[in-house]
Amino acid sequence: MPTGGANFKWDGDDAAAFSAKVKRAHKNLSNQALFEMYERRFRGYMSDMFKTEGASADSPWKKLSSSYIDWKGHDTIGVLSGKMQSSLTGGDGYFHKITHDNVQMGQRKGFAPWTKFFRNGRVPRSIELSSKERNLWKSMAQHYYAETIRNAMDPKAKNRSIRLPDGSRFVVHKDGSAHARSGGAQFVRKAVENSTLQRMKRAGGW
Fold this sequence. Notes:
The chain is mainly alpha-helical and 206 residues long. The protein has a domain at 16-129 and 185-199. It has helices at 12-28, 32-52, 66-72, 83-88, 115-120, 131-152, 183-193, 196-199; strands at residues 94-98, 103-107, 160-163, 169-172, 178-180. The strands form 2 sheets. It has a 3-stranded antiparallel β-sheet, covered by helices on one side. It has a two-stranded antiparallel sheet with strand order 1-2. α1 (12-28) packs across α6 and α2 runs parallel beside α7. 26% of the residues are buried.
């Protein structure tokens, strides 16, 4: 043993027990519930962005020109036929796919192709996740994995209901598996119901 130092020994029983916990965690941990909460939050986030014309993401969209407003018949940004908004908030044209290690969500390929002009035109308007929102998603993941791993590695763990920083809830089971609770969907439906898509659905481009 070194003089003035320290000696750490991990005996066979401790190592075997820890290895068993790791195997248990690896078997039961899943991204599914986290990805489902991400997908719900995305729809709500995009609905709010259209309702507030970018202000909810701290990036207000630039106003329309008076000539375009005259042609369009109203000054609501991003809504004419409603297709672009619908395809980004969970309605017609929306696409999402969740696998064990990936989640995709957004506008279905080929639907409302004029979206690229809204995003990348002469006066681009952001419809992406803000840095603040991306940081929140990171925080959600940190909390989610901390809680699921905690249960997965504790044979005496119990089922628990967990609330994430954004308000989403999920249940982590005693084996470390988890499922998203359905409460978040109510928020999304309410956001869509109050959106400009509903108010302008009879308008006639974006």
